[in-house]
Amino acid sequence: MTMTKNGLILTGVDGSELSDSVLDYAIWLSKKSSAPLKLLHTIEHSHHSEQVGHEGNLTPNIKEHLLDELSDEERLESKKLIADGKQIIKGAKDKAEAAGVTDLIAKQRHGSLPEALLDLQSQLSMVVLGSKGHDHEGQLHGLGAQLEDAIRVIKKPIFIVKSGFKTPEKVMFAYNGSPTSHKALNLLASMALFKQDLEIHVVSVQKNLSDAQNLIEDAQSVLNDAGIDMIGQAMTGEAVEVITHYQTTHGIDITVMGAFSHGKLHGFFFGSFTTQMLIESNTQFILVR
């Protein structure tokens, strides 16, 4: 899970209101980690004809004419999507180059984002995505329609951007001792990013304060061995409420946590602790599965 020159940082750019911030964080990660950056714009065709759906009442000749028109509509839509995508990817590439990123790949491909991530994940060290796309434009809350599927298909860490770019200074790791949480701890210890000028906070919320303190001490042992200093805090209470309060009062910029230890059922995602954190928190996230 280390971020090395062999692992790309991939970011999805789609022209949504969060797209610029997603790119800013991807650029920051690439430069801080000395990792190559790949910009990806996906074109997913979902054409809907404006023709009224009365096909059952039409003669064969009229049906054939409407099919020809539908084909023309699809071709025009496809050309527009490709042209718009080229502009989006060019703008993102120009911005990354202007910011000093030299190891850069920019690609446009057909298909869904989850399909692309599944195909490319062997090349990646981290994926950077916005919490919302065009489907939630202008909404304060909510998660993008493709985000769940993207998180489900890929086993790499995912950096989720929720707001405008601010140079990160403080990182909080939420540690509960679960298998994915252990993976997140190992990632934190291994990434060069966290051995630089970032203030690292480790929090644990358990029913029993002594259990939380034991987890803090375990994390401290691992991180100190990796040369990382940390501020630890053991707490009790309702986990989402306690952790989001800690984020706010301590000015946390990025939250690192293990994610989605449940099965693949849709209901588990929307009922999960991870999803509640994504919705209720204002920080950016690094999720580890």
Layout: helices, strands, pairs:
Layout: E1 8-12, H1 19-33, E2 37-43, H2 60-98, E3 104-110, H3 113-120, E4 124-130, H4 147-153, E5 158-161, E6 170-174, H5 179-190, E7 199-205, H6 209-225, E8 231-235, H7 239-249, E9 254-258, H8 266-270, H9 273-280, E10 284-288
Parallel strand pairs: 1-2, 1-4, 2-3, 4-5, 6-7, 6-9, 7-8, 9-10
Antiparallel strand pairs: 5-10
Describe the structure.
With 289 residues, the chain is of the alpha/beta class. The protein has two domains: 1-162, HUPs (Rossmann fold, 3-Layer(aba) Sandwich); 166-289, Rossmann fold, CATH 3.40.50.620. 42% of the residues lie in helices and 20% in strands. It is built from nine helices and ten strands. It has a ten-stranded mixed β-sheet with strand order 3-2-1-4-5-10-9-6-7-8, sandwiched between helices. Helix 5 runs parallel beside helix 6 (209-225). The radius of gyration is 22 Å and the shape is elongated. The relative contact order is 0.14.
Explain briefly what this protein structure is.
The protein is of the alpha/beta class and 289 residues long. The protein is built from 9 helices and 10 strands. The termini are close together.
Strand count? 10
The biggest beta sheet is recorded as:
10 strands, mixed
Number of domains: 2
What is the N-to-C order of secondary-structure elements (H for helix, E for strand)? EHEHEHEHEEHEHEHEHHE
Q: How helix-rich are the residues, as a percent range?
A: 40-55%
Beta-sheet strand percentage?
15-25%
CATH homologous superfamily annotation of the largest domain: HUPs
Helical stretch tally: 9
Alpha carbon gap, first and last residue: 11 Å
- CATH architecture term of the largest domain: 3-Layer(aba) Sandwich
Class by SSE composition: alpha/beta
